[in-house]
Amino acid sequence: MTKFGEHWEASFREMVVEAGAKAIADAGIEGRELQAVYGGSMASGRLISQEHIGALIADQMGLAPIPSTRCEAACASGGVAFREGYLSIASGAYDVVAVGGVEKMTDVSAEDVAIALGGAGDQEWELFNGATFPAIYALMARRHMKEYGTTEEQMAACAVKNHANAMHNPYAQYHKAITIEDVMKSGYISEPLKLLDCSPITDGAAAVILCATEKAKKLYPEKAVEVLASSQASDTLALASRQSMTAMNATAVAAQQAFAQAKLAPKDIQLAEVHDCFTIAEIMAIEDLGFFKKGAGGKAAADGETALNAKISVNTSGGLKACGHPVGATGVKQVVEACWQLRGEAKGRQVDDAEHALTQNVGGSGATCVMHIFKRADRK
Amino acid sequence: MTKFGEHWEASFREMVVEAGAKAIADAGIEGRELQAVYGGSMASGRLISQEHIGALIADQMGLAPIPSTRCEAACASGGVAFREGYLSIASGAYDVVAVGGVEKMTDVSAEDVAIALGGAGDQEWELFNGATFPAIYALMARRHMKEYGTTEEQMAACAVKNHANAMHNPYAQYHKAITIEDVMKSGYISEPLKLLDCSPITDGAAAVILCATEKAKKLYPEKAVEVLASSQASDTLALASRQSMTAMNATAVAAQQAFAQAKLAPKDIQLAEVHDCFTIAEIMAIEDLGFFKKGAGGKAAADGETALNAKISVNTSGGLKACGHPVGATGVKQVVEACWQLRGEAKGRQVDDAEHALTQNVGGSGATCVMHIFKRADRK
Fold first, then answer.
1. pLDDT by residue (tens digit) across A35-80?
2. Confidence label for B377 from pLDDT (cuts 50, 70 and 90)
């Protein structure tokens, strides 16, 4: 992956090439061994006036004429691209596939970014009426506080923990430790969410190489990471249409399917990269994924149960909050972090004896959730 | 599918529901039998300020929580969505999948549409410098005329034939027969391409239901259409980077793969829906697909060899030219036409003894080509 951040001197295309070339080098293959590409990008049409991102990636990487397909599912675009790459190998069409995610967000005004991101929700019923994403997640936070007694300090604890993890991730946007007091003193963006509850606007790209299982085990017996489960679910675009504002049904459904596929339970997972676009989203995720009971996520965060090498290590990369959130790249970055952890290469933020990792990538306010469970391939 | 045209009183969402509901009814299933959705849409972010089209489709159709994924490959978005649906069934993940394509283009200014469509090509090297799509295809036409002696009248013959076919397609945007003289007298858009060489701006949606082969043969022994081949290839985004301006390498590569998969040759195909965004594109397509020798496409068109029930029936739907071109929907509409023809349901434009149909869907100026070959399932 590229470093995540404000890359005023790197274009969309340059970031694609940097992440793609690093992934190919890491896999120890030649570009010509790739048989297809899947790319996740959410809002390139509005942010850089460019669609047809699949072809762009193959072109910039010098990979034509292999097929190259863009997938879009708002902030879950990267995770969905990974899933399509996975399914394409499962179909037998290909053996070796590259999956990339990329977004270039800092070349347009903050207003234009807000409008582009609003396209992840229900344009007609939410954005048109002024409900930007911080407002939508603020509604969820307020309701979670009312129903379960979750506090602003408990939400702040997620941000503090993610900034602490990011201190040890050289690819993270922020290398700045923060305190609960820092979060509580930061200005309200949409009450009760404050500046330091919100993930930032970020440029960045991430890429991975997928390979059919038997081939991967032969080529990389100690390095390969196995995909044990892949699942995806949907929900209404608009928050107002849902039965609950404090749980994401798409996450719950995808989790049930993923754990069944992997024949694992939440207790078997050592680390999870979850979609903390706002701190309340991390609290809801760790509940909906079954790591903690519904309503107990805030207390668990405040008690340190999601810190590095605690009960479960959540967002060791720094999460969207501190590693940054280039929307189309985030889902692929989660997979990259899972791989590094399962290989024991996450220096300074390594989870001890990491055997199973989970990634949970959300689009919009929960209308898409895509999930994967990974295992170190050298273990039985 | 919806009728293609200028639907000032139907929204993007309404068109999704109309096409989706018709496809479900045609398949004789219940919506709850669907296990996943794939949707093709190119430029919804710019045209209706809405991304996350996969979730939108599932939401509008009342299909949540099943997975729903948007694919984007410019004007090949529909074809690529169909291919991803096909691969997802081949992977074993699903048995019954809906594939839709949709675009709502007439709610913004012509300038905004031109900029949105420009995102299909190379924004930095083409659109930024003023090369809109008619200009790019005009360069190809001029070169084809120089190398092979193709004439403006030969190109016009494609438009005349496609308008004649559209007279019998109730879903077509135009029901207006035109003559060679009409085309020749229409104003230049980008010389040598005239108004009647160009496909129009269109609203519309199309949808199909895909089902695992054995299940389809059991459920619909006489109605099901079999997918014999699916292929996709890429090329450089920018025309200037290619070796040839008179052939699309992505089409040639995809055709080679598709015919090999289907164990068929061009002579075995009775009808083809090809991507005639401009008349010159149809001439290049029938050459690159192997129906005619390179350089002989113009003469073949003028000689009537691509007319209904001639040597090969090309664009019986009316093609992009006369059926209309809602970009994300076009690739799925091609599949719909192929199905109707192979079932013998294309009243007034029916190809006699149609056994094999081919669809060729192009993104941009040829940076993506996705192709499918279909067979009537009740024949051995």
1. 999 999 999 999 999 999 999 999 999 999 999 999 999 999 999 9
2. confident
- Report which DSSP code applies to A2: P
β-bridge partners, A268: none
User: Lowest-confidence range among A109-118, A271-280, A290-299?
Assistant: A109-118
Residues with Cβ within 8 Å of A335's Cβ and at least 6 positions away in sequence, in order, are: A78, A79, A82, A99, A206, A208, A359, A372, A374
Per DSSP, helices labelled H in B167-276 are 180-185, 213-219, 249-262
- Let me know: does A141 contact A129? Beta carbons within 8 Å: no
Spell out which residues of chain A touch residue B126, defining contact as CB-CB under 8 Å. none
**Residue type at position A275:** H
Mark which residues 228-247 of B lie under 8 Å from A by CB: 231-238, 241
Q: Does residue A160 belong to the interface with chain B, where contact is any CB pair within 8 Å?
A: no
CB-closest option in A48, A122, A232 to B123: A48
Task: For residues B329 and B324, give the distance between their C-alpha atoms in angstroms, rounded to a whole number.
Answer: 10
Q: What is the DSSP letter of B206?
A: E
- Using CA atoms, how far apart are residues B120 and B350, in angstroms rounded to an integer? 33
Torsion A126-A132-A137-A142 (CA) sign: negative
CA-nearest of A49, A95, A101 to A78 is: A101
Residue A72 forms contact with B (CB below 8 Å): yes
Q: How far apart are CA B313 and CA B300, in angstroms?
A: 12
Query: Whole-prediction pTM value?
Result: 0.98
Burial of B103 (0-12, 13-18, 19+ CB in 10 A): buried
Q: Where do the domains of chain A lie, and which CATH numbers do they carry?
A: 12-375 (3.40.47.10)
Determine, for residues A123 and B234 on separate chains, whether the beta-carbon distance falls below 8 Å: no
Predicted-complex ipTM score: 0.97
Contact call for residues A109 and B89 (beta carbons, < 8 A): no
User: Chain A: nearest CA to B14, how far in angstroms?
Assistant: 13
Q: Which of A71, A75, A198, A277 is catalytic?
A: A75
Residues 6+ apart with CB under 8 A from A121: A127, A131, A133, A136, A237, A238, A239, A364, A365, A367, B52
Structure tokens, A117: 């991101």
For chain B, the average pLDDT equals 97
Options B71, B75, B158, B339, the catalytic residue: B75
**Three-state SS for B231?**
strand
C-alpha A114/C-alpha A330 separation (Å) is: 17
Average per-residue pLDDT for chain A: 97
B75 an active-site residue? yes
CB atoms within 10 A of CB A325: 26
How is residue A187 annotated by DSSP? P
Residues 109-138 in B contacting A (C-alpha not used; CB under 8 Å)? 115-116, 118-124, 127
In a 10 Å sphere around its CB, with 0-12 CB exposed, 13-18 middle and 19+ buried, how is residue A172 labelled?
buried
Question: How do the residues of chain A divide into helix, strand and coil, expressed in percent and rounded to 5?
Answer: 45, 20, 40
Of A48, A71, A124, the CB nearest to B69: A71
Q: In chain B, which residues have their Cβ closer than 8 Å to the Cβ of A54? A: 72-73, 80, 234, 368
| Contact flag A68-B127 (C-beta cutoff 8 Å) | no
Give the one of A63, A73, A92 whose C-beta lies nearest to B52's C-beta.
A73
User: Cα–Cα distance between A282 and A145 in angstroms, integer?
Assistant: 14
B325 tagged catalytic: yes
pLDDT in tens, A145-199: 999 999 999 999 999 999 999 999 999 999 999 999 999 999 999 999 999 999 9
What are the φ and ψ backbone dihedral angles of B103, each rounded to 5 degrees? Answer: -150, 140
Residue B143, φ and ψ in degrees, nearest 5:
-70, -40
